[in-house]
Each structure stands twice: as structure tokens, then as C-alpha cells.
Amino acid sequence: MKFLLVLLAYLAIIRMSLATNCVAVGSFRQSKDPTCQKYFTCNVILDIYFIKTDLSCGTFMKFNPTTQQCDYTSVCIDSFCDNQPPLQKLPDPNALNQTCRHTYIQCKGITNQYPTIEQCPLASGCC
Ligand SMILES: *[C@@H]1O[C@H](CO)[C@@H](O)[C@H](O)[C@H]1NC(C)=O
């Protein structure tokens, strides 16, 4: 068991790489992952460098892009923007309160649309 933990820690370290798509600190869904198990974290070191770490949720778990955590119940949004009209706004199925959602899915991109999670405008609160 101890050996396994050491091995996992070692693997986590060698999988860390200098970021190519870290723009903010936090946990983010890996786009184009139909399993929705992959995500990455971005951390800042020395106040200037972003460090990206690729991670995967446990078996049967998915990365919830709204809560930024792995869970058993979240809906995979990877293909939500496929075959949608351009720049569509869609309800966030992972919003914590489904009667008053504070987040929505914004489809972005021109030829291959992809989903992002956006916050509702503060004035209205729900959207
Ligand atoms: C969800 O939002 C509605 C409308 O604002 C509110 O009445 C309700 O208490 C909220 N539910 C939870 C679980 O926060």
C-alpha cells in the first residue's frame, strides 16, 4: 500500500509539465474527453510560472466542470455543443440549484464548437 502511494506520487510529479493552456489557478475539465474523467490543475510557482498537472478522476467518477471536483453524478458536457447553432447558450445540467442556475454553458468556436461554463450576469443571478 505504501509502495503504491509512493508510486502514485511519483507518477503525479513526472506528469507535471510546464503549462501550455493554464491561464488561471484552479481545476479544469480536459476538453475533447468523452469519458469526462480527465482534468488538469493549474498552480502558480514563484509568482510567475503556471504549472499544469494532468489528472484523472477515480473509476466511475467524472469531473464536474461546474464544481471543479470529481463526483459520481455530474453530467458530461463534452458533446453538448456538437450540432448546435453557433454561440448557443445552454442550461448547465450541473448547476447546484436547477430552479435558479448561477451558471450556463456557452458554446464557443467556429467550426468545432466546444462548451465552457460561464457565470450568469450578477444583476439577474439566475439564468
Ligand atoms: C433554489 O433557488 C430558488 C429560487 O431562488 C430558491 O427558492 C431555493 O431555495 C433554492 N434551493 C436551494 C436548494 O438552494
Structural notes for this entry:
The structure is a single chain. The protein has 127 residues and is mainly beta. Helix content is 10%, strand content 35%. The strands form three sheets. The chain has a four-stranded antiparallel beta sheet. Strands 7-8-9 form a three-stranded antiparallel beta sheet, with no helix packed on it. A two-stranded antiparallel ribbon has the order 5-6. The model is unreliable at 3-19 (pLDDT under 50). Bound molecules: 2-acetamido-2-deoxy-beta-D-glucopyranose. 2-acetamido-2-deoxy-beta-D-glucopyranose binds at residues 97, 99-100.
The count of DSSP E runs of length 2 or more, i.e. the number of strands, is 9
The major pleated sheet works out as: 4 strands, antiparallel
Bound molecules: 2-acetamido-2-deoxy-beta-D-glucopyranose
- Roughly what percent helix? 10-25%
- Residue-averaged pLDDT: 85
Number of domains: 1
**Terminal CA distance:** 47 Å
Signal peptide: 1-19
Protein name: Chitin-binding type-2 domain-containing protein
Keywords: Signal
InterPro entries: Chitin-bd_dom
